[in-house]
Amino acid sequence: MIYCQNKPQTCFVELKGANISIKNNYNPYDQIMDTIKYLQSKDELKELVDKKGGKHAFIVSPSRQNIPKGSNTKERQLWKKLT
């Protein structure tokens, strides 16, 4: 996670060495969502993910990943959480 006080802006970065796929029912989208939930649960950290600043998520993978149009996908849930 990268937080910039001057903007304010929070960026979540997940680095993957292989194509994104569900592995043991836990994927990069789950990892970022869990990080956001954890930060929201801590009074001293929740300002990092509140609605005031910009939020971005980057999942770096050897293959390009697009946000699917389905409403119940992990990708779509993460996108909704960040907006």
Notes on the protein architecture:
Residues 62-71 have a biased composition (Polar residues). Residues 62-83 are annotated as: Disordered. Residues 72-83 have a biased composition (Basic and acidic residues). The model has no long low-confidence stretch (mean pLDDT 78). This protein starts with a strand and ends with a helix. With 83 residues, it is of the alpha+beta class. The protein has two helices and three strands; from the N terminus they run ββαβα. Strand 2 (9-15), helix 1 (28-41) and strand 3 (54-60) form a beta-alpha-beta unit. It has one domain. 28% of the residues lie in helices and 20% in strands. It has helices at residues 28-41, 74-82, and strands at 2-4, 9-15, 54-60. It has a three-stranded mixed beta sheet with strand order 1-2-3, with helices on one face.
Throw out a few tags for this protein.
single chain; globular; 83 residues; three-stranded mixed beta sheet
Number of strands: 3
What's the number of structural domains?
1
Q: From the alpha-carbon coordinates, what is the Rg to the nearest angstrom? A: 13 Å
Mean pLDDT: 78
Order of secondary-structure elements: EEHEH
Count of runs of 4 or more consecutive helical residues: 2
| Strand composition percent | 15-25%
Strand order of the largest sheet: 1-2-3
Region (Disordered): 62-83
Biased composition (Basic and acidic residues): 72-83
Biased composition (Polar residues): 62-71
